C-alpha cells in the first residue's frame, strides 16, 4: 500500500485537500440554486433545515466517500470493489454520473464565460436586452466556441496533475472567490431601489426575508417540501454521489486528520452558500420584490444582469466581478468532475494521466457539442417524470441528479452500513488515533436515517412523491 501511495499523486497537505474539495463543492449549485431555493422555501426556515441536515445527513455521506477513497487509494470506478468485490457495480454508477454531468457543466461554464467577456468588454447593457440569453444559447456556433474555451481550461489543470494542477490552482482561485463573494454580499445589503409604483425596497429588507424564518401558511406538506429541497441541495453543495470525494480522498495522505478536514469542507461550503444568498437575494428583492426570486436558473443569466444594469456605471464593475467569481466557482467544480473520470481511467486501465485526460476530455467534449446543439439543431421538448419539460441538457441533469445520485447514495449507505459495516470507514477516520466526536451520530445516520431520506429523495426525483 505504501508503494502505491508514493506512485499515486497526492495533495501536499490538509490545506490543499480542503481547498480542492471545497472548490469542487462551491460550484454553480451554490451560486444560483441555493439562493433560489432559500427564497422559495421561506428564507430562514430553509436555512435552519439545511444547516441541520448538513451537520447530520450531509456530513455522514461526505465523510463516508472521503474515507472510502483514502482507505482504498482508488478512484470511484475501482474503489467500491476494494470494499466488497460483489459491489464493484456501484463503481460503474459512480463513474457514469460525473461522465454525464461534465459535458453539460462545460456548456454552462461556457455561458458564464460569455457573460464575463461581455462585462469585460463594457457590454453589460447588451447582456440585459430581452432575448439576449435565449438568442445566445440558440445560436449554433457561439455556445460551442465558449464551451471549447472553458473545456480547454479544465483540461490544462487536470492534465497537470494533482499537486501542480488541481491543488495549485485551487489555492489561487478559492481565496479570490471568497473575497469577491464577501465584497458583493456586503454591497448588496446597501442597495435601495424605488419602482414605478413609488415603492422603495432595500437590500437590508431582502436580507431579512433571507434570514428570518417565515412560518406563514406553513403546512406539513410544505415543510416536507422544504426538507426535500434542502436534502437535494446537499448533493449539489457537497459534491456527494459524484465520485469526486472518493477520488480526492484517494489523494489524501494517511497522516492528515480526515475528520477535521471534512469538517472544514462543510464549514467552507456552507459559508459560501450562505454568502451566495446574501449576494443575490437582497439585490434581487430590492429591485423586484419576492416575485423576482422565482426565476430559478434564469436568476443568474437574466434577472441579475438587469440588477447590475440599473446600478449605472458601477453596476458594470459589479457585474464583471460577479461573473468572474461565478467563472472561478464553475471552473473549480468542473475540474473536480473531470478528475473523477480521469482518475478512474488511470486506476482501471493503468493509463498515464496524459492519456486518461486526453481520452476523457475528448469523449466528453463530443457530448458537450450535442448538448449545445440541443438548443438549435437537435431541439425538442420532452416532459420528464418530475413534471418539468426539457432538452438534452435537462435530460442529462435529470438522469444524474434525480435518479443516479440518490441511487448511489442509497447503495453506498447499505454497503457501509450493513455489508462492510461502519467500522470499515470509522477505522480509516480514526487511523492516527484521532477522536471521532460524531461517531454514534454517524453510525445511526449511515445505517438508518440516511438510507430512508435517500429513498424519499429518489421517489421525489422519479415523480412518485
Radius of gyration equals 21 Å
Which runs of at least 5 residues are low in confidence (pLDDT < 50)? 1-6
| Total E-strand runs | 4
Characterize the main sheet: 2 strands, antiparallel
Task: Tell me the CATH superfamily.
Answer: Amino acid/polyamine transporter I
At the fold tier of CATH, the topology name is: Amino acid/polyamine transporter I
> What sequence of helices (H) and strands (E) makes up the elements?
HHHHHHHHHHEEHHHHHHHEEHHH
The residue fraction in helices comes out at over 70%
Strand order of the largest sheet: 1-2
CATH class: Mainly Alpha
CATH architecture annotation name: Up-down Bundle
- The number of distinct helices, counting runs of at least 4 residues, comes to 20
Quickly count the domains.
1
Calculate the mean pLDDT score and round it: 88
Beta-strand content bin = under 5%
Q: Which structural category fits the helices and strands?
A: mainly alpha
Give the CA-CA distance, first to last residue: 46 Å
What's the overall geometry?
globular
Amino acid at each position: 500500500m505504501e508503494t502505491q501511495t508514493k506512485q499515486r499523486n497526492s495533495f501536499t497537505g490538509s490545506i490543499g485537500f480542503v481547498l480542492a474539495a471545497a472548490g469542487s463543492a462551491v460550484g454553480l449549485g451554490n451560486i444560483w440554486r441555493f439562493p433560489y431555493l432559500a427564497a422559495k422555501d421561506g428564507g430562514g426556515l430553509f436555512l435552519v433545515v439545511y444547516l441541520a441536515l448538513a451537520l447530520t445527513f450531509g456530513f455522514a455521506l461526505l465523510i463516508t466517500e472521503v474515507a472510502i477513497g483514502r482507505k482504498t487509494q482508488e478512484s470511484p470506478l475501482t474503489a467500491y470493489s476494494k470494499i466488497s468485490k460483489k459491489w464493484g457495480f456501484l463503481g460503474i454508477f459512480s463513474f457514469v454520473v460525473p461522465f454525464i454531468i461534465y459535458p453539460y457543466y462545460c456548456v454552462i461554464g461556457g455561458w458564464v464565460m460569455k457573460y464575463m467577456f461581455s462585462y469585460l468588454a463594457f457590454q453589460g447593457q447588451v447582456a440585459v436586452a430581452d432575448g439576449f440569453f435565449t438568442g445566445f444559447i440558440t445560436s449554433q456556433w457561439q455556445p460551442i466556441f465558449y464551451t471549447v474555451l472553458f473545456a480547454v481550461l479544465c483540461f490544462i489543470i487536470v492534465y497537470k496533475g494533482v499537486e501542480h494542477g488541481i491543488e495549485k490552482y485551487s489555492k489561487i482561485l478559492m481565496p479570490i472567490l471568497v473575497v469577491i463573494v464577501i465584497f458583493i454580499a456586503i454591497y448588496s445589503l446597501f442597495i435601495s431601489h424605488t419602482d414605478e409604483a413609488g415603492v422603495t425596497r432595500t437590500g437590508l429588507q431582502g436580507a431579512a426575508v433571507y434570514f428570518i424564518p417565515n412560518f406563514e401558511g406553513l403546512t406539513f406538506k410544505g415543510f416536507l417540501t422544504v426538507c426535500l429541497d434542502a436534502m437535494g441541495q446537499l448533493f449539489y453543495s457537497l459534491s456527494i454521489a459524484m465520485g469526486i470525494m472518493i477520488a480526492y480522498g484517494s489523494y489524501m495522505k494517511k497522516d492528515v486528520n480526515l475528520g477535521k478536514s471534512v469538517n472544514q469542507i462543510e464549514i467552507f461550503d456552507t459559508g459560501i452558500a450562505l454568502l451566495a444568498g446574501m449576494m443575490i437575494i437582497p439585490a434581487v428583492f430590492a429591485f423586484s420584490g419576492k416575485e423576482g426570486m422565482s426565476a430559478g436558473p434564469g436568476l443568474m443569466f437574466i434577472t441579475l444582469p438587469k440588477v447590475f444594469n440599473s446600478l449605472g456605471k458601477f453596476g458594470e464593475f459589479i457585474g464583471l466581478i460577479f461573473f468572474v467569481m461565478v467563472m472561478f466557482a464553475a471552473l473549480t467544480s468542473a475540474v473536480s468532475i473531470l478528475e473523477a473520470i480521469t482518475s478512474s481511467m488511470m486506476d482501471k486501465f493503468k493509463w498515464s494521466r496524459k492519456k486518461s485526460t486526453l481520452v476523457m476530455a475528448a469523449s466528453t467534449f463530443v457530448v458537450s457539442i450535442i448538448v449545445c446543439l440541443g438548443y438549435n439543431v437537435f431541439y425538442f421538448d420532452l416532459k420528464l417524470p418530475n413534471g418539468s419539460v426539457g432538452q438534452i441538457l435537462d435530460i442529462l441533469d435529470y438522469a444524474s441528479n434525480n435518479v443516479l445520485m440518490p441511487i448511489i447514495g442509497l447503495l453506498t449507505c447499505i454497503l457501509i452500513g450493513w455489508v462492510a459495516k461502519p467500522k470499515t470507514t470509522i477505522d480509516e477516520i480514526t487511523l492516527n488515533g484521532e477522536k471521532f466526536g460524531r461517531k454514534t451520530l454517524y453510525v445511526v445516520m449511515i445505517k438508518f436515517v440516511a438510507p430512508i431520506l435517500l429513498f424519499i429523495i429518489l421517489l421525489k426525483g422519479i415523480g412518485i412523491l
